[in-house]
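In the design runs reported in the main text, the only information available to the sequence generator was the tokenized backbone. The following block is the verbatim input for one such run; it is reproduced so that readers can re-run the procedure and compare outputs position by position.
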């Protein structure tokens, strides 16, 4: 029996460990080395594996490349094979953010139509390291530094402990010809600059282990985050109280928060800063503040109503929400 090349074995093992035990899955494949190696491994390991590729229409010939990839997938036995065409124009968040939002919407829609239990994404250890560096550059807290999760809802990332070099080697060993996305080397994009300049500079200065160490740090921080989030959820439940009667309370909180909910200052004051700020962040989201616009400075302003109270006015949150301190509680006032 021919020996399986080590890179092929590494990718297959990672997929085997992560693949759901039952139900069909879709592989999100762009045709790049990472997702192509992932697709080949999933097809080898899995019992019911389809493939979906998203054409963003951002480059000349993108429709032809999607059709070629779909033809390869059909010949390789993927079922179903889906080409999703999306429009990025007019979406918020810049080119990268708009394309990402459109892509995830398309992947979610495709999975729903075919009843897939998971969509496999080809992010590697190198992608995780890049994500951590970008988060550091933004001044992100533990949530950002935890990087990309192995699983979030429908989306599963089996290759977060596999190197990009191994996905390329796996493709070469299997005779697969990856497509090189020019956006990946375009210095107009921050991630491309990290990939092409910042991370290689760190590797040169600190050694090749820096990539795995950055990814490992994300994993450790993610585990800490999980526990802190659990404690914050309990703290949020503890701090809820009926709000005092106030003619200024004109708009009730959203989701499962009762119309008269508020947070008790004494309960909040007794929490450690890390837990209290998570409580305030979660509460702001429950009030309806959009997560993408809710920043660290908003949470700090809420925290100041608890820890640095000197009679200041209400805090303005994204979504037209105002929160004030009244009668020993924090309460939404508009």
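Verbatim output:
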């Amino acid at each position: 029996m021919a020996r399986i090349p080590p890179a092929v074995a590494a990718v297959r093992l990672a997929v085997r460990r992560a693949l759901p035990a039952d139900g069909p899955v879709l592989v999100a494949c762009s045709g790049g080395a990472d997702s192509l190696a992932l697709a080949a491994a999933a097809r080898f390991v899995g019992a019911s594996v389809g493939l979906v590729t998203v054409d963003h229409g951002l480059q000349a010939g993108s429709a032809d490349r999607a059709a070629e990839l779909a033809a390869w997938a059909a010949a390789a036995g993927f079922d179903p094979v889906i080409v999703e065409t999306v429009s990025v124009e007019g979406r918020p968040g810049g080119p990268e953010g708009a394309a990402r939002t459109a892509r995830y919407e398309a992947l979610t829609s495709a999975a729903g139509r075919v009843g897939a239990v998971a969509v496999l994404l080809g992010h590697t250890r190198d992608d995780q390291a890049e994500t951590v560096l970008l988060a550091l550059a933004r001044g992100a807290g533990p949530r950002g530094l935890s990087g990309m999760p192995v699983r979030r809802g429908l989306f599963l990332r089996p290759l977060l402990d596999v190197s990009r070099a191994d996905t390329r080697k796996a493709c070469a060993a299997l005779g697969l010809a990856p497509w090189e996305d020019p956006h990946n080397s375009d210095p107009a994009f921050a991630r491309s600059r990290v990939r092409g300049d910042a991370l290689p500079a760190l590797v040169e200065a600190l050694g090749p282990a820096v990539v795995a160490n950055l990814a490992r740090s994300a994993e450790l921080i993610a585990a800490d985050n999980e526990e802190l989030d659990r404690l914050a959820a309990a703290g949020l439940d503890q701090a809820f109280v009926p709000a005092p009667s106030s003619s200024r309370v004109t708009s009730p909180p959203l989701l499962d928060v009762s119309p008269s909910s508020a947070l008790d200052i004494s309960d909040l004051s007794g929490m450690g800063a890390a837990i209290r700020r998570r409580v305030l962040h979660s509460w702001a989201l429950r009030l309806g503040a959009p997560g993408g616009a809710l920043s660290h400075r908003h949470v700090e302003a809420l925290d100041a109503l608890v820890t640095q109270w000197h009679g200041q006015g209400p805090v303005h949150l994204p979504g037209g929400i105002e929160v004030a301190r009244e009668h020993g509680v924090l309460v939404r006032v508009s």
